[in-house]
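[Meeting: bench + compute handoff]

Bench side (C.D.) handed over the final construct sequence. Compute side (W.E.) agreed to return the predicted structure before the next meeting so the bench team could plan truncations. Sequence as handed over:
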Amino acid sequence: AFAAPHALAKELIFAIGAAQGSLQYKTAEKFANNANAALKSAGSDYSISLFGDGQLGKDKELMQKLKLGTVHLSQPSSIMAKVTPQFALFDMPFLVKDRAHLAKIESEVFWPSIAPTADKKGYKVLSMWENGFRHITNNVKPINTPADLKGIKLRTPNSTWRVSMFRNWGGNPTPMSFSEVFVALQTGVIDGQENPLTNIYAAKFNEVQKYLSLTNHVYSPSYLVAGKRTWDKIPADVQTIIKDSANAIKPWMYELSDSQEQELLGKLKEGGMQVNKASYQDFVDASKPIYEQFAKKVDGGKDMLDKVLSLSN
């Protein structure tokens, strides 16, 4: 007698834009490995295949592919503010004090008020991961205060709030896809950019940038996101394994992030970058109008900001 035919292996395509070596990439890889091991030991025929380095598209394309169902999982960061304005809470400068504050923001603001807004747009947020604290690099001069940004053409992600923030500070923000930044810096199309150290190092920006100014101006999460149509078809036990695997790696990810931060700073200095620490207070003082705009323009914005600030005590 013939054995019953096996159900076709159900391969979930996990496509990300992040470069190998970055915290985002390492987190994605760790998650995929752990989830696959857990799925296998549960006897599931589901598996996750990771495609990094923008192989299947840049963030914007990947967001479309999630909706279409040609990609099943992705790891967007700042681009989520384009999905719903509530995600732009994390574009507010100097919002997150430290990890303890972040944990409170996640449980009391992110999951109740922000993540559900993505459902209506066809996305399911499964976990909140880390991209990191952002810093400024450029080829003109060290940035100590917002006034130093005057006339500097700086690449930002395609986020209205990030653009508005740098405009408020006197810079000349230029939204651009991350994968185009290296060449734009090399050819002088732009003077600088802002990113966490892990992305600056992984993308080899130290080869085309002279100054690194430690500003910590924005904390960027990255997110594990599924297309809602795909997600709703996945069996509940598989959904649970995926979510649990995503959340279980967070302590590992934070530890890696912190140790990488120190190590990368050393490597970027060795790579010839001049490093300075920007004046925190000058930037905070220049950021008040951005908070006021967010409170006014974003539905529920004022309540979210008030809540986040009250949680920092």
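W.E. noted at the follow-up: The first helix runs from residue 23 to 41. C.D. will use this when planning the next construct.
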